[in-house]
């Protein structure tokens, strides 16, 4: 009796496990209920894409990847991806296909851009060449050399940055602002921002080289951004000198000049004007030296009375009698 109960429990567990497994498989596959067309697209790189991956239009699932095969064409190996697409949409000459991803560690899917909704069957392109597709790429290339920065980030922050970068690289012009904002947030976690930005710019250029969309524009933007970054890296020592001889140096110099007498607020023009005026006066004074020298009388002999500059005064005879022959010299005024 006990063995029968154990067998019953095991059988029930197997049934539940099988039901759960079937449910998971159906969720993963999620077949499209609408009628579909079959297409084959060629990609130069289909990394991360697998069978039963989604085919989406504007983020809505409208088909499934049915097959992925490697084939040789025009001396080049390409991935031939077979997929189904809701008949509501058609692949025409203006349509483009791209392999995109849902998250940094998530699965890839095929994104259909500019599908035709009102189309004629003769305009459908069933075999889509590589000129109409954008390949997949290894998103981890973006983070080469940035391991210390990645260690400080949350997974959702990393996913946001990656999504913003790939959105712009894939051709969405609205992704530039969010991408630059994400770069700014990444630099908040590092001390040496110049090296970090330089590494990130190099990685973005490598990724852009494998994509279409606005990649050419991004490469030009990266070159422009690299100009100030490279210039800053080449003159880092000048920033140190600016710190040494900046406010820390000039503040004591200003205090020293203030103590010497050069007060803050004094007119520099007025001071220079007075200085040059005094110099002119000194020069004029030196010009008078020869005239003054010529008018100076020769020095008197020792024991002799000093000569009169305006001559001797003529004294009356009564004064000579009064002085009684003493050697007294009276000068004219």
From TrEMBL:
UniProt keyword terms in alphabetical order: Membrane, Transmembrane, Transmembrane helix
Lineage top rank: taxon: Bacteria
Residues that span the membrane, as ranges: 6-28
Domain Mammalian cell entry C-terminal residues, every copy: 128-223
GO biological process: biological process involved in interaction with host
Mce/MlaD domain: residues covered: 36-113
A GO term from the CC aspect: extracellular region
Protein name: Mammalian cell entry protein
